[in-house]
Design goal:
The mean pLDDT is 95. The protein is an alpha/beta fold. Helices cover 35% and strands 13% of the residues. Its EC number is 1.1.1.28. Keywords: NAD, Oxidoreductase. This is D-lactate dehydrogenase.
Length: 302
């Protein structure tokens, strides 16, 4: 993972290939420019970790992986939702401590009796919709663009109706800075059922952690699963001592609500197929730039 602290490891190289939690801000890009690096590629769909304007100013080529296995993210979203619905983390944590008593917390609805709301019905959202539909759930969706493919799997609703009707809400929208920052806020959560489950495996910038914490503490939300946080470079890929508080006290309080809150360290793309897609496309990006001077996956500042 590229950080301010290890940026010097990029010396004597021609290019860098980043992940979403790498730091490619003005400070690091200036140093990469000093090192003579002209290729700043990322094996992610999103590029919000790269200062595109600075990269453009230094005449750097920036390319991304526009898509990879949608099943990877969709399956993790489904897993988090099902763990919260069936209280499996709660149950297995108890048995790990030699407590085999079955209590009322372990009671749940069956997923076939649930309404699942998918916000963002692109490739990943549609894949999760198919997975839930296969389990018998009633699947509804919200998206500005209502594709014919999605209409075959789910019923489109307004976002407000989706939030009001869903037992499980899963987020699959891109983060657009200045437009949907912290869209999962107090107002959003207030429109959800108090016994609903929320899952976000998209981008951490979409969620207001404090609002989610408040909703959970006030029993206005039953459970929360996430694979992402804003500024996750301060958290993920690091190991903290068990008695050491996390850098962000709100995230600490969220994690303290386990097993009502389930956090995974941005592992949505950690599958064999997704990794294969990322590496293959990244190799193609390098090959295209070096042989033709351009790649179809190049990204420019807006």
């Amino acid at each position: 993972m590229l950080t301010h602290e290890n940026i010097t490891t990029a010396k004597n190289h021609d290019a860098v290939l980043l992940r979403g939690n790498c730091v490619a801000d003005k400070e690091n890009l200036e140093k990469l420019n000093d090192y003579g690096i002209r290729y700043v590629f990322t094996r992610t769909v999103g590029v919000n970790h790269i200062d595109l304007a600075v990269a453009e100013n230094y005449h750097m080529h920036v390319a991304r992986v526009p898509s990879y296995s949608p099943n990877a993210i969709a399956e993790l979203s489904l897993t988090l939702a099902m763990m919260l619905l069936r209280h499996t983390a709660y149950a297995t944590n108890r048995t790990a401590h030699k407590n085999f008593i079955v209590d009322e917390t372990m009671f749940s609805k069956e997923v076939r009796n649930c309404t699942v709301g998918i916000i963002g019905t692109g490739r990943i959202g549609l894949t999760e919709a198919k997975l839930f539909s296969g389990l018998g759930a009633h699947v509804i969706g919200y998206d500005v663009y209502q594709s014919d493919a999605a209409k075959e799997v789910l019923t489109f609703k307004t976002q407000d109706k989706l939030l009001a009707e869903s037992d499980i809400v899963s987020i699959h929208v891109p983060h657009i800075p200045g437009k949907n920052d912290q869209m999962i806020n107090q107002t959003f959560l207030g429109k959800m059922k108090s016994d609903a489950i929320l899952v976000n495996t998209a981008r951490g910038e979409l969620q207001d952690n404090e609002a989610i914490l408040t909703a959970l503490e006030n029993n206005q939300l039953a459970g929360f699963g996430t694979d992402v946080f804003a500024n996750e470079k301060d958290l993920f890929f690091k190991a903290f001592k068990i008695d050491q508080p996390l850098p962000d006290p709100i995230i600490q309080k969220l994690i303290d609500l386990y097993p009502r809150v389930l956090v995974t360290p941005h592992i949505g793309s950690n599958t064999d197929e997704a990794l294969k897609n990322m590496i293959t496309t990244s190799f193609d990006n390098f090959n295209d730039i070096l042989t033709a001077g351009i790649s179809k996956n190049e990204v420019k500042p807006a």
